[in-house]
C-alpha cells in the first residue's frame, strides 16, 4: 500500500516521472501528429475536395438569399421565388450530404491513424525494460493507452475538415462580402483582431491546465488500478476508509485541474459569441444608415448578416480547434514520452545463431545497481556447470531474485559480465535467450482463458497431449481433472477462481511444457502445502534432470540435494558449497538450517 500512498503524495516514482507542468514544444508535437495522419493521404485529399465543394455551396447560399429577396420577393414574383427557393434548397441539401460524407471519411482516417499509433505504443511497451515499469504506475500507462489517445482521436477527426473548411470559408466569404459591398466588408473585419487576441489569451492559459488534467487523470487511474489489484490487502488490514479518503483526495485533484482547464477554455465560446454579436450589430447599424441613403439594398444587408455569421463561424471553429488541440497535445506528449523511451536492452547486431544451450553459466565479478550508489549485488562470481542444480539461499532482500533476473536479462549488469556456454549473455538475441530459459516466479499470474490455454502459453504450438503431460509431471492434473470443464475450464483474470497453490502448479506445468535448457525456480513451491510440495518436487526432479537449474527457496529442505548452494547476504556471496560442506562450516547457512528446523518444530 505504500506505493498507493506515494502515488497520491508525489513521493513515489510513478508521480515524480509524470509529465512536467512546464510548456513543451507544441509545434514539434503537432508536426509529429501530422506525420502519423499524413499516412492516410488518399482519404485526406478526398476530404479536402469535398470541403472545397461544400465551401463553395455554403458561399452560394447567402448570395442567392439576397438575390431572391431583391429580384423575386420584393417585386412579388411568386413563381420565380418558388423556383429559386427550390434551387436554394437543393444547394443546402447537397451541402449537408457532402458535409456528412467528409465527416465520415475523416473519422475513418482518424481512427485508422489512432489504431496505428495505439499499436505502435503497445509494441513499444512490449520492448521496454522491466525498470521502466518499475518506475511507472500501471494505471497511468493504461491512461496513456486509452484516454490520452482518445483525446487525440477527437481532435484528429475534426482537425483537417475544420482547418480546410475554415480557411476556404474565410477566403470565399471575404471575397463575396467585398463583391457585395466593400464598406460593410470593412465593418465586418473590424472585430477580427479582437477575436484573435481573445483566442490567444485563452489558449495560452489553458494549455498548462490541460496537461495538469491529463497528469491527474493518469494518477487517479493508477490509484484505482492498484487499489483493485490489492483489494484483499485493503480488506485484510481494514483500510477501506483510509483508501476511500485517499481516493477522494486524488479525485479532488482531478476535479480541480479539470475545473481549471474547463473554466479557462469555457471563456472562449461566450467571448467569441459576444464579439460576433458586436460585429452583427455594427453591420446592422452601418447598413441601416447606408440603406436610408440608398447606398445598399435590404437584400444585400440580409446577405451580409448571413455572411457575417458564416465569416465568424470558421474563426470560432479555429479558436475552438486550438482549444481542443491543447487537450490533444497534452495527451500526445504523454504518448510520445513513452514512444521516446530508450530501449535499454538491445540485441547485438552480431547475435549468435540459435542453438540449444548446454547450460554452463558463469557470473564474473558482477555488480548491479537499481539506483546509483546503492549496489544490490557486489562483485558476485560463481560457476554453474551444465546440468547442475544451483540453490540460492539468504535473507529477504539479499539479492537472490536479482541474480536470476540478470540471468533472464530482465536487466543488464552494471559491472562485470555473465557468460552462458562461454559467451557473454549479451551475445545472444533476446528471443533466443528467453526461449532457452524457463522461469517460475514467486508471484504467479494467469490470463483470462482456459486452463489449457494458460499452460500452452509456455509453448503455443503444443498439442493437447503435450499440455496434459506437462500438467501430470507438475502434478497439476490431479486437481484439473476435478474442475467443471477440466482443461477447458475458464479462469478469471489472474486465475482468481483457483487457489494460490493451484495457480502455482499451472505455472510450473507451463515451464515444463516449454522444455527449457536452463530452469529458474523463484520460490516456486512457496505457495503450496507440504503434501503438494512433495508431489511437485518429484516432478521438478524429473524436469531438472540434465538441465542447469537455479532454485530460490525459503523451505531449506527442498534444496538440500542441490549440487551447489550459494549463500547470499547483503548482495554478496558469503558461503558456497553443497549442503554437507556448508553444514560442516557451521556458518551462516548452518544457522539458517537450525532456525528453519526450530520453526518447523
What does this protein structure show overall?
- The chain has 601 residues and is α/β, with parallel strands linked by helices.
- It folds into two domains: 25-339, ABC transporter type 1, transmembrane domain (ABC transporter transmembrane region fold), CATH 1.20.1560.10; 361-600, Rossmann fold, CATH 3.40.50.
- The chain is 64% helix and 11% strand.
- It has 22 helices and twelve strands.
- The protein has helices at residues 2-9, 13-16, 26-37, 41-73, 78-127, 130-134, 138-180, 182-189, 192-229, 231-236, 240-266, 268-292, 298-339, 400-407, 430-436, 451-456, 464-473, 477-480, 500-514, 530-544, 579-585, 588-600, and strands at 361-371, 374-384, 389-393, 415-420, 423-424, 437-440, 449-450, 490-491, 518-522, 548-552, 564-569, 572-577.
- The strands form three sheets. The protein has a six-stranded mixed β-sheet, sandwiched between helices. The chain has a four-stranded antiparallel β-sheet with strand order 2-1-4-5, with helices on one face.
- β1 and β2 (374-384) form a beta hairpin.
- α8 (182-189) packs antiparallel against α12 (268-292).
- Mean pLDDT is 75; it is low at 1-23.
Amino acid at each position: 500500500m505504500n506505493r498507493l500512498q506515494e502515488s497520491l503524495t508525489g513521493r513515489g516514482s510513478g508521480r515524480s516521472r509524470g509529465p512536467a507542468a512546464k510548456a513543451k514544444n507544441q509545434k514539434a508535437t503537432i508536426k509529429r501528429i501530422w506525420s502519423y495522419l499524413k499516412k492516410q493521404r488518399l482519404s485526406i485529399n478526398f476530404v479536402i475536395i469535398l470541403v472545397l465543394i461544400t465551401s463553395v455551396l455554403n458561399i452560394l447560399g447567402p448570395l442567392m438569399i439576397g438575390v431572391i429577396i431583391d429580384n423575386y420577393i420584393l417585386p412579388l414574383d411568386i413563381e420565380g421565388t418558388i423556383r429559386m427557393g427550390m434551387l436554394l434548397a437543393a444547394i443546402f441539401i447537397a451541402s449537408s450530404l457532402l458535409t456528412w460524407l467528409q465527416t465520415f471519411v475523416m473519422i475513418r482516417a482518424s481512427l485508422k491513424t489512432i489504431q496505428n499509433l495505439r499499436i505502435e505504443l503497445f509494441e513499444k511497451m512490449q520492448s521496454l525494460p522491466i525498470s521502466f515499469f518499475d518506475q511507472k504506475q500501471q494505471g497511468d500507462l493504461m491512461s496513456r493507452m486509452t484516454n490520452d489517445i482518445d483525446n487525440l482521436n477527437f481532435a484528429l477527426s475534426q482537425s483537417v475538415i475544420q482547418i480546410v473548411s475554415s480557411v476556404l470559408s474565410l477566403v470565399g466569404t471575404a471575397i463575396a462580402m467585398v463583391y457585395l459591398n466593400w464598406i460593410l466588408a470593412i465593418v465586418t473585419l473590424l472585430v477580427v483582431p479582437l477575436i484573435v487576441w481573445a483566442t490567444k489569451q485563452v489558449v495560452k492559459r489553458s494549455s498548462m491546465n490541460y496537461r495538469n488534467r491529463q497528469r491527474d487523470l493518469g494518477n487517479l487511474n493508477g490509484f484505482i488500478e492498484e487499489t483493485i489489484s490489492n483489494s484483499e490487502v485493503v480488506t485484510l488490514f481494514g483500510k477501506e476508509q483510509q483508501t476511500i479518503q485517499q481516493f477522494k483526495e486524488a479525485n479532488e485533484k482531478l476535479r480541480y485541474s479539470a475545473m481549471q482547464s474547463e473554466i479557462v477554455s469555457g471563456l472562449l465560446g461566450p467571448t467569441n459569441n459576444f464579439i460576433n454579436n458586436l460585429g452583427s450589430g455594427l453591420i446592422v447599424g452601418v447598413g441601416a444608415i447606408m440603406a436610408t441613403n440608398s447606398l445598399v439594398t435590404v437584400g444585400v444587408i440580409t446577405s451580409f448578416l448571413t455572411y457575417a455569421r458564416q465569416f465568424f463561424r470558421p474563426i470560432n471553429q479555429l479558436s475552438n480547434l486550438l482549444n481542443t488541440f491543447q487537450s490533444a497535445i497534452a495527451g500526445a506528449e504523454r504518448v510520445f514520452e513513452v514512444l521516446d523511451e530508450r530501449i535499454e536492452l538491445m540485441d547485438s547486431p552480431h547475435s549468435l545463431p540459435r542453438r540449444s544451450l548446454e547450460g554452463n553459466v558463469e557470473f564474473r565479478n558482477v555488480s548491479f545497481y537499481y539506483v546509483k550508489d546503492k549496489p544490490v549485488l557486489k562483485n558476485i562470481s560463481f560457476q554453474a556447470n551444465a546440468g547442475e542444480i544451483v540453490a540460492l539461499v539468504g535473507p529477504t532482500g539479499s539479492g537472490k531474485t536479482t541474480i536470476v533476473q540478470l540471468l533472464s536479462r530482465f536487466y543488464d549488469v552494471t559491472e562485470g559480465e555473465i557468460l552462458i556456454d562461454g559467451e557473454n549473455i549479451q551475445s545472444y538475441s533476446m528471443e533466443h535467450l528467453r526461449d532457452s530459459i524457463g522461469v517460475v516466479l514467486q508471484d504467479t499470474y494467469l490470463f483470462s482463458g482456459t486452463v489449457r490455454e494458460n499452460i500452452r502459453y509456455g509453448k503455443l504450438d503444443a498439442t493437447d497431449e503435450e499440455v496434459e503431460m506437462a500438467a501430470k509431471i507438475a502434478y497439476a492434473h490431479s486437481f484439473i481433472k476435478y474442475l467443471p470443464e477440466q482443461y477447458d475450464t475458464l479462469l478469471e483474470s489472474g486465475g482468481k477462481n483457483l487457489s494460490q497453490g493451484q495457480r502455482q502448479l499451472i505455472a510450473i506445468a507451463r515451464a515444463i511444457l516449454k522444455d527449457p535448457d536452463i530452469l529458474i525456480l523463484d520460490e516456486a513451491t512457496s505457495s503450496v502445502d507440504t503434501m503438494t510440495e512433495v508431489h511437485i518436487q518429484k516432478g521438478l526432479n524429473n524436469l531438472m534432470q540434465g538441465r542447469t537449474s537455479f532454485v530460490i527457496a525459503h523451505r531449506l529442505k527442498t534444496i538440500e540435494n542441490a549440487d551447489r548452494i550459494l549463500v547470499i547476504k547483503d548482495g554478496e556471496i558469503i558461503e558456497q558449497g553443497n549442503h554437507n560442506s556448508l553444514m560442516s562450516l557451521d556458518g551462516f547457512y548452518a544457522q539458517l538450517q537450525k532456525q528453519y528446523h526450530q520453526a518447523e518444530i
